[in-house]
Amino acid sequence: MYYLGMARTPTTADVFNAVGDAHRRAILETIGGRELGVGELVDALALPQPQVSKHLRVLRDVGLVHCDRVGRRRVYRVHGEALRPIHEWVARFEQLWNDRYDQLDDLLVEMQKGKG
Fold first, then answer.
1. Is the pLDDT reported for residue 11 higher than 60?
2. Which of 9, 10, 75, 98 is deepest in the core (most CB within 10 A)?
3. Residue 114 has what pLDDT?
4. Architecture of the domain whose range is 2-115
5. pTM for this one?
6. Using an 8 Å Cβ cutoff, are 85 and 15 in contact?
7. How far is residue 61's CA from residue 53's CA, in Å, rounded to a whole number?
8. Rounded CA gap, 12 and 21, in Å?
């Protein structure tokens, strides 16, 4: 795929691209720690079944969800381990966020001192 003359990685290439879509994030959040079928996801998300199935395929292709047959149904569950690359990437910013919150706390203390 090309976008503005540059090659674009397909959404099935990695978890970062897969979760870049709001509908796929909503599917992951809706499934959570449960097992849900496509019909349950369609009802919960108010999306058409073909769209839910398309997004589940992307999530399955990158390993973010597993699909099992339970009788005639296919149920999906989140594979949390596949989220590890995102967690590790975000964790790199945790110290930065903590430092900024500490600076904000210091500023608020100074502002309170100035009022009193």
1. no
2. 75
3. 80
4. Orthogonal Bundle (1.10)
5. 0.74
6. yes
7. 12
8. 11
**Confidence band, pLDDT 50/70/90 cuts, at residue 115:** confident
Burial (0-12, 13-18, 19+ Cβ within 10 Å), 110: exposed
Segment holding 3, helix H or strand E: strand 2-3
- Where are the domains positioned within the chain? 2-115
> How would you write 69-104 as a 3-class SS string?
EECCEEEEEECHHHHHHHHHHHHCCHHHHHHHHHHH
Q: CA-CA distance, 22 to 63, in Å (whole number)?
A: 18
Q: What is the pLDDT of residue 12?
A: 58
Tokens of 27: 């599917």
> For residue 13, what are its two tokens?
């290439």
